From TrEMBL:
Pathway(s): Cell wall biogenesis; peptidoglycan biosynthesis
HAMAP family per record: MurF
Record protein name field: UDP-N-acetylmuramoyl-tripeptide--D-alanyl-D-alanine ligase
SUPFAM superfamilies hit by this protein: MurD-like peptide ligases, catalytic domain, MurD-like peptide ligases, peptide-binding domain, MurE/MurF N-terminal domain
Occurrences of domain Mur ligase C-terminal (ranges): 293-410
Species lineage: Bacteria, Pseudomonadati, Bacteroidota, Flavobacteriia, Flavobacteriales
Length: 421
């Protein structure tokens, strides 16, 4: 079946589904495969639950006239998304980067949605499956689309850009993330810059902070570049960021100076799309982070910066810099392993361990197999090989009246600490 014919069927459906546990009536079910599952086996179940069509790539499962057999389900999903994107012609803003992608996407969406009908990536569905699913949720009523793109190896952003075909783009930063796949910080820069390469080759618009020399270097004298940051000034971050925008004070619910750039680009994009200053300010002031991203939580006698959604050496340093700058007493840091660092894991964990000791922090808990191997000769550092070991320590020696930073990679799930403080 051609993409044009499949698209005609897609337009008859209410939405897209890839999970039979979440079947909407009249949806189009895509029978994706993974290492441990084969969606083809669930095609009939999806149809029985209300799906209008089931897209499969194994003929033996074509047991219903609503099954549509294709060569490869995933590739078909991706091709359908690009066809949908071209048909709609909706302006799309794409963003990637080592840290802060999701927060930045949500801030941009908050600002633009005050004036436009927007549609944005849900959560962090930013990979080769999540990106096409995001695009296929755009409708003819979508005035601006916002697509987050993630990557852990080179050529992935190029691939996602070719699906998305963005009109505007922004890279939050270049950091030491996914070194196992990218190989080095130079590999990260090259991989993330594939977004700028795509935008420039298609004569589209690039947003860059005027003070980010490394990013400016990547685009050279490209004419369709919007440099931002001249009309915003960060006033303080104790712990929440307060900033001045065109001499208007904005009081945010975001902690950490590292979030300033994310706010500044949301303002810049809002201005580009002619959102009025008042709406921009209200949107940013009303935005509250969720999902373990730079959240401020109070529990019992403790105050907590919960930043446990993910971590890499760059974001860990930024979090420690911010935590160290806070004018608070009784500070305690609970840091979990950073994943996907490959052969750099030992060095990077030791570096973070050493760096954490340079701050006036009452006690530091290092959790995970990599942090457990670090060399620590100071009394205020404790290492734990597993979360269970840390849990027992917190139960036996409860933390009271402390100001905590909790940060680690997603696989560490350090938000579980909240159950024991």
């Amino acid at each position: 079946m051609t993409i044009e014919k499949l698209y005609h069927s897609f337009l008859k459906c209410s939405t897209i589904s890839t999970d039979t546990r979440k079947i909407d009536s009249d949806c189009m079910f895509f029978a994706l495969k993974g290492d441990n599952f084969n969606g083809n086996k669930f095609a009939l179940e999806a149809l029985n639950k209300g799906a209008q069509f089931a897209i499969i790539d194994e003929a033996k499962y074509a047991t219903h006239d609503k099954c549509i057999l294709v060569k490869n389900v995933l590739e078909t999903l991706q091709s359908l998304a690009t066809h949908h994107r071209k048909t709609l012609g909706t302006p799309i803003i794409a963003l990637t980067g080592s840290n802060g992608k999701t927060t930045t996407k949500e801030l941009i969406n908050a600002v633009l949605s005050t004036t436009y009908k927007t549609s944005a990536t849900k959560g962090n569905l930013n990979n080769h499956i999540g990106v096409p699913l995001t695009i296929l949720k755009f409708t003819k009523d979508t005035e601006i689309g916002i697509v987050e793109m993630g990557a852990n190896h080179q050529k992935e952003i190029e691939f996602l850009s070719n699906i998305t075909l963005p009109d505007f783009g922004f890279i939050t930063n270049f950091g030491k993330a996914h070194l196992e796949g990218f190989g080095s910080i130079e590999g990260v820069i090259k991989g993330k810059s594939e977004l700028y390469d795509h935008l420039m080759s298609h004569h589209k618009v690039v947003f860059i902070n005027k003070s980010d020399a490394k990013q400016i270097e990547q685009i050279g004298d490209y004419k369709k570049t919007i440099l931002f940051g001249s009309n915003t000034i960060m006033a303080s971050a104790q712990p929440f960021i307060n900033l001045l925008f065109n001499k208007i004070e904005i009081k945010t619910h975001l902690t950490g100076a590292y979030n300033y750039n994310n706010i500044a680009v949301a303002i810049a994009i809002g201005l580009h799309f002619k959102v009025d200053d008042s709406s921009i300010c209200k949107a940013i002031e009303n935005y509250k982070p969720t999902n373990n991203r730079s959240q401020i939580i109070e529990k019992n006698s403790n105050k907590i910066i919960l930043d446990a959604y993910n971590a890499n050496p760059t974001s860990m340093i930024a979090a420690l810099d911010n935590f160290g700058s806070l004018n608070e007493s009784g500070k305690v840091a609970i840091l979990g392993d950073m994943f996907e660092l490959g052969e750099d894991a030992e060095f990077e964990h030791q570096s973070i361990s050493d760096y954490s000791k340079t701050f006036n922090i009452e006690h530091i808990y290092l959790v995970g197999e990599n942090f457990f191997k670090t060399k620590n000769i100071v009394k205020n550092v404790s290492t734990f090989k597993s979360f269970e070991n840390l849990k027992n320590e917190l139960i036996n020696s409860p933390l009271k009246n402390k100001y905590l930073l909790i940060k680690g990679s997603r696989g560490m799930a350090l938000e579980r600490v909240l159950d024991y403080i």
